[in-house]
Design goal:
alpha/beta; about 375 residues; 7-stranded mixed sheet; single chain; 4-stranded antiparallel sheet
Length: about 375
């Protein structure tokens, strides 16, 4: 059988986690929390399952959860939405991204993405018959070159995908970025997919700028969010997409044939969790900033150059003062000889620069972060 994605194999996350397990290494490669979901969330999950809420929910989402998402959007971004028309609950943010890409991409369309890019974007574009147009961001700033974006737009361009806070660079888009983005979208009548799964994890008292805060941007956008990232429950695979009514209608046409609906007891548990206004969601940035600072402080005596982490739960390190190995070889060396697993940044590029940069995940217990840093400081 001829493969539809012949150039894809085992993901870097599977590869590095497998190596970490094989060598009993500390795993700061794959982006999942080492700690558990909130107690209230687990209690409510058990409650709804015990009470018999175990059948299909509506395809667009359980009404209590849609309502609480709309309440969260109003509180965080001062946008009033009609949840029945605009909020679709999905089986993880990756499903939401896949469905949004299928909804906008026609055969021959070009979709602009920014490298280093989350690895699910391009396969979804290719499966829809489109082509990903890669625009590279450069270390150490990982800033978008908007004149270069303008040059890349042509009559085949259909949409732009942005991600802020950004995985893997841990950078955030600024007001000037959104101004440039909006000018291009309006001038060329393009759609926007905004991957905001780390929206509640922005640091140093600098609020996340959401597309939901700008009516002109939101009018042509799919905004993707993740409960797994927000509530430390990545294994639940729960996310959602917010889009204007007409775009949501197109999104739901495809969503109903991908998963139809998502895990009902979890939806109701998440609705109860969101009803606790403030609390966990509002404390998340401080929680992860503390963990970022633990890792950064523990690495101060290392030979790595630490790149600023403005959001997400990732930290980039430049190892050029330590080794001439390429980043894949260096990460394999770290696992096998140092006992610590990281991710090479080159895997997130179409044409990787010769940067000596690796990504660490600090969604771990403080003791784990300190132990990992001690190993890195030994280099």
């Amino acid at each position: 059988m001829e493969s539809k994605l012949p150039h894809l194999g085992t993901s870097i996350f599977t590869h590095m986690t497998g190596l970490a397990n094989q060598h009993n290494a500390i795993n700061l490669s794959q982006g999942f929390p080492e700690f558990d979901a909130p107690k209230l969330l687990k209690q409510r999950l058990a409650h709804y399952s015990e009470q018999g809420f175990n059948q299909y929910s509506p395809s667009s989402g359980a009404i209590p959860l849609q309502t609480q998402i709309a309440n969260l959007v109003k509180r965080k971004y001062q946008l009033e939405i009609t949840p029945a028309d605009t909020v679709t609950v999905t089986s993880g943010a990756t499903e939401a991204l896949f469905v949004a890409i299928q909804a906008v991409t026609r055969p021959g369309d070009e979709i602009i993405i920014f490298d280093p890019a989350y690895d699910s974007y391009e396969p979804a574009i290719e499966l829809a018959g489109g082509r990903a147009v890669h625009i590279a961001m450069q270390a150490p700033d990982y800033a978008i070159d908007w004149p270069q974006v303008a040059e890349a737009i042509n009559d085949k361009t259909r949409a732009i995908i942005i991600n802020s806070p950004h995985n893997p660079s841990a950078k955030t888009l600024k007001a000037s970025d959104f101004k440039a983005l909006k000018n291009l979208l309006i001038r060329h009548d393009l759609l926007l997919i905004s991957d905001e799964v780390y929206e509640h994890i922005a640091f140093d008292e600098t609020p996340h700028i959401s597309v939901l805060k700008d009516p002109e941007l939101f009018a042509r956008a799919f905004v993707i969010s993740s409960f797994g990232k927000t509530f430390h429950c990545t294994g639940w695979k729960m996310g959602y997409c917010i889009a204007p009514k007409l775009l949501s209608e197109e999104f739901r046409k495809i969503h109903q044939y991908v998963t139809f609906s998502s895990f009902t007891p979890a939806q109701l548990a998440l609705a109860d969790m969101l009803a606790e206004q403030g609390g966990h969601v509002d404390e998340l940035a401080d929680f992860y900033q503390q963990k970022r600072d633990v890792l950064v402080n523990a690495l101060q005596d290392s030979r790595f150059t630490i790149l600023p982490s403005e959001g997400t739960y990732f930290l980039l390190l430049d190892y050029s003062a330590i080794s001439d190995l390429d980043d894949m070889a260096f990460c394999e060396y770290l696992v096998k000889e140092v006992g610590m697993a990281a991710i090479p940044l080159s895997v997130f590029y179409q044409n990787a620069p010769d940067d000596k940069v690796i990504r660490l995940c600090f969604a771990k217990e403080d003791d784990t972060l300190v132990e990992a840093a001690e190993k890195l400081c030994s280099l």
